[in-house]
Structures are given as C-alpha cells and as structure tokens.
Amino acid sequence: MLEWIEQALGDGWKLTTAGGLTGEAFFAKKDNKQLFLKRNSSPFLAVLSAEGIVPKLVWTRRMENGDVITAQEWLEGRELKPSDMKDERVASLLHKIHHSTELLDMLMRIGIIPLTSDDIFQTIKQQISQLDLLKENVDVQIALKHLETLLPKTRGQKLVVCHNDLNHNNLLMSKNGSLYLIDWDNATIADPASDFGLILKWYIPRDEWRNWLKNYGIEKDDHILERMYWYLIHDSLHYLIWHLKRKEPAKVMERLRDLKELNDQVEEMF
User: Which residues form the Aminoglycoside phosphotransferase domain (predicted)?
Assistant: First the structure.
C-alpha cells in the first residue's frame, strides 16, 4: 500500500497513517504542504469538495494496479466536541446537504438506490427472524411493533442524500471557522429524518429539539418526530444485529438498553 502512495506523491513526502478501520488513509507532509490521502475514495468526493462540504480535493490519480489515490487539503482545525453540535452551523450544513440536487444526482449516477422505509422495514424484519437470540427478545418485538405502527407516517417523504453516520467526530471546524462533514463511506439516499434524528437524540436536550429543527429549516411538523423515532429504532436494531454477529456481548447489552429506552420514549410520546 505505501509504495503506491509514495509513487503517487513523488519524493520528499513524509507519510503517517490516519488511523481508521481500513488502514487506507494517510497524512502527507512536505515543507509547508500538507495533504490527506485516501485509497479508492468514492467519485462522490469530487462533488462534495465542489460543494464545500469536505476539504478541497487537490488531485486524483489512478495507479498502475487500478487503485485511485485522492489528495485533499489537510486543514488546521479540530473535531467538534459533543457540546458543539448545538451550533447553528451544524443544522445549516445538514440542510445544505439534504437540499443539494448536485449531490443527489451524483449518488444516483454511481448506482446508490434510494431506500424507502418499507424496504428498510422488510430487511430488518428478515434479519431478526434469522437470529434466534433476538426474535424472542421482548424489547426487540416491541421495537418491531413500533416500526410497524409508525411506518405509515414515514411514507411519501422526499428522499435525499444522507450521511448515515452523523457524530461529532465526523465534523471538522477549520481555524477560519469553516465547517466540514467527512467520512462519506456510508452515504445513502433516504429520509432526512434518519440523519438529524441522530443529532437530536445524542446531542440536543429534548426541550431544544424544536429550536434545532427550526434552525435546520423545518417549520411544519409533517410527522417529524414519528419519522425520527422510526429511524432511531431501526438504527438501534441494525447495530444490535451488527454487534451480535461480531460476538460483542457488552455492546449487545448496551444496544438492548438503548432500544428499551427508545421503546419507552415512543410509548410516552405517541
């Protein structure tokens, strides 16, 4: 891997790993120049860069073995802290992403299929039915019932580009105050409630939800809370299955506790 990166860069660059699960991202430094390099990034990156959603794409190079190396600006700045997620700029950036026809067109062109809530519901039901440990679990059964009950409220929504992994670690603030959302490997075309629901649940106090949604651009309710909780329950079930398959019992228990909390909140609100 390193030899291909070095070949793409040329002489004189110092490489350090950028971490991550894939081990395919690096920082490169030479004199006063700094770059973030990644192997086989999605072609979606170019549009994200043009829209100012990720740091500027400097170049893209195809190697002899077919790999594609991308280089982006390495900006001085920091990841957001959990408390920063209340910043109006977070809501504004998410609104920009969800309303970008350029991003949507590119995702469609590279073959990303829009995900309807009906498709998502059938998939999660099938996955749970195949796992004996889960299909008899009371909290899982209650969660599935909530998904079924709230499903009609999720239909007929405009499906948009969603990041699908929104957390404070994926938001970067540069020294000049520019905000960027990185790590787009899980991008989907779905209900925007699947994105902002994660922010509201994990970062915003309940009594501030309406104000955050107003900053995002939602004045009309349009079943927004029902949709948000629908996707939060699905997300919790999805990761519950993921940890179970990876044989991570502590994480499984954590997800079950999270699922019970969501079930209780739905029963209180609806």
Answer: 19-219
59 φ/ψ angles, rounded to the nearest 5 degrees: -160, 160
CATH code assigned to 2-74: 3.30.200.20
Per-residue pLDDT of the chain (270 residues; tens, 9 = 90+): 566 677 777 778 888 887 655 557 888 888 888 899 888 777 899 999 999 999 999 999 887 778 888 999 988 899 999 999 999 999 999 999 999 999 999 999 999 999 999 999 999 999 999 888 677 899 999 999 999 999 999 999 999 999 999 999 999 999 999 999 998 989 999 999 999 999 999 999 999 999 999 999 997 777 999 999 999 999 999 999 999 999 999 999 999 999 999 999 999 988
Quick one: CATH architecture of 82-269?
Alpha-Beta Complex (3.90)
Residues assigned a catalytic role: 165
For the chain, the domains span 2-74, 82-269
209 backbone dihedrals φ, ψ, rounded to 5°: -60, -45
